[in-house]
Amino acid sequence: MADMFDERAVKEGEYIVESGATVRECAKVFGIGKSTVHADVTKKLRAIDEDLAAEVKKVLDVNLSQRHLRGGDSTRRMYEQRKNPHITNTGR
């Protein structure tokens, strides 16, 4: 059973590194919670594959530094959608 969770952590880590995805985006793709993804790629992955964990940390650090920009962009799109309902919200 532990192997299944280890394998999931590795797959999540590889997905984040390859796509530059946020924890939230990764959680949607794998159908699990954000907290689970975060625990998998920060704690479990470090014990399984230190090199991959370091790469994931770099991506997550970039995502963290851009978080305020994504939030502002999301808010801007929300208000545009309210003002012009015919515009579709393409998201990220």
Describe the structure.
This protein has 92 residues and is mainly α. Helix content is 82%, strand content 0%. It has four helices and no strands. The radius of gyration is 16 Å and the shape is elongated. It starts with a helix and ends in a 9-residue tail after the last helix. The model has no long low-confidence stretch (mean pLDDT 85).
What are the low-pLDDT stretches, counting only 5+ consecutive residues below 50?
A: none
Helix run count: 4
Main beta-sheet annotation: none
**How much β-strand is present in the residues?**
under 5%
Average of per-residue pLDDT values = 85
Q: What is the approximate shape? A: elongated
The SSE string, one letter per element, is HHHH
Number of beta strands: 0
How far the N terminus sits from the C terminus, by CA atoms, comes to 35 Å
Query: Helices and strands: which structural class?
Result: mainly alpha
Share of helix, binned: over 70%
Give the radius of gyration.
Answer: 16 Å
State the main characteristics.
92 residues, mainly alpha
Summarize the structure.
With 92 residues, the protein is mainly α. It has helices at residues 2-19, 23-30, 34-48, 50-83.
Give a topology summary:
Blueprint: H1 2-19, H2 23-30, H3 34-48, H4 50-83
